[in-house]
Design goal:
Length: 354
């Protein structure tokens, strides 16, 4: 918060990532909730670093049930994924596209199913982050139909990009699209199902998982092993334009009401560059600001990764941002100010609980 003081133009909040669930960190969850940080992200992926086993996840859920927190879950079966990834490398399959082949849809849906059952036992609300696969969405839909406090988000890249066209680009270019969960195949119906999930309230939020890396000096440090490519792409800047421009076939079949359902949240892995603005679309802090950048020298940015050059040809974008009823961006310009009056958003119980 000290970094944001006087430098941040919008209000913001934080999620807490739990890399080690133990007696000490469980007690710290209560302290965080008292301080207004009420969401805690756990990982069923990344064994050896961020991974939590089922027992640790259950303990964190039980703690959240007692203090009013929300458990956020990166739902992929990391143990099984590591086996498939190791076998792929042993066969010489090291290109970026094999990142997607190893992180199979079934291993996302299995983890979502397991997380939902653990949340039921732990009596805690559950929020699935960056959901990308149809089968995983089906698990969420079934839980919500039963009335469970289960919610899920998707991200713009899963609505527009594909394993074949982006992660599978020639040479090493696909590294720019390495993220987890991975981009899914265009020959299946994942993207269409995600758009429909937004319309039917099976998906609650369009978030970003904003975590860009430079191609030179970061993504390209390990060209011979997809397992070592930094995971993450950009998503914040042009999300609003993308969500306002669903594929034409879905617009025709479902109507423009597809735009009315989701709430929007800016979130990611680089706190100094992350903003959060709860509320419906008109009060979002995300605006269209600058033209595409050179991904070779700067972090992987949304214009290149999300194909905004095509959209810019026929859309002007959203050029106004409102904070607490006051316009802070007009015509795409943020006025210079000697002091930007942002505020830390203390959060309590989720307003989504039902």
């Amino acid at each position: 918060m000290a970094k944001a003081e006087g430098n941040c133009a919008i209000d913001y909040g934080f999620h807490m990532a739990m890399a080690d669930v133990n007696a000490s960190s469980l007690k710290e969850m209560d302290t965080m909730v008292d301080e207004g940080l009420s969401s805690f992200k756990l990982f069923m992926a990344y064994p050896g670093s961020m991974y939590s086993d089922d027992g640790q996840i259950l303990r964190a859920m039980q703690q959240a049930a007692g203090n009013g927190g929300m458990i956020m879950m990166h739902a992929e079966n990391g143990i099984a994924i590591d086996v498939l990834a190791e076998q792929a490398v042993e066969r010489g399959e090291t290109a970026p596209i094999h990142h997607g082949y190893a992180r199979r849809e079934a291993l996302e849906s299995e983890a979502v199913h397991r997380a939902i059952k653990l949340a039921r036992v732990g009596a805690a609300p559950l929020y699935i982050v960056h959901l990308s696969a149809s089968e995983a969405l089906e698990e969420v839909a079934r839980a919500r139909t039963r009335g469970a406090n289960v919610f899920a988000e998707t991200c713009p890249h899963y609505l527009y990009l594909s394993l074949e066209d982006h992660l599978g680009k020639p040479g090493f270019d696909g590294a720019g699209y390495v993220c987890s969960t991975p981009l899914r195949s265009k020959h299946e119906h994942h993207a269409a199902d995600l758009w429909k999930g937004l319309r039917t309230d099976e998906l609650s939020v369009v978030s970003t998982d904003h975590c860009p890396f430079c191609m030179n000096g970061q993504k390209d440090l390990e060209r011979d092993d997809f397992r070592l490519i930094p995971n993450g792409i950009g998503g914040v800047e042009h999300r609003m334009d993308l969500i306002s421009s669903p594929p034409a076939d879905l617009t025709r079949s479902m109507g423009r009401a597809v735009l009315d359902s989701p709430r929007f949240e800016c979130s990611g892995s680089i706190p100094a560059r992350v903003s959060s603005s709860p509320g419906p679309m008109p009060t979002s802090s995300c605006t269209t600001r600058r033209p595409p950048v050179d991904q070779r020298r700067q972090p992987s940015h949304e214009p290149r990764l999300l194909g905004l050059r095509r959209l810019r040809a026929h859309r002007q974008g959203r050029h106004r941002a409102v904070r607490r009823g006051r316009v802070i961006v007009e015509h795409g310009q943020l006025p210079r100010s000697p002091r930007r009056r942002s505020a830390f958003l203390r959060r309590g119980l989720s307003s989504y609980l039902r």
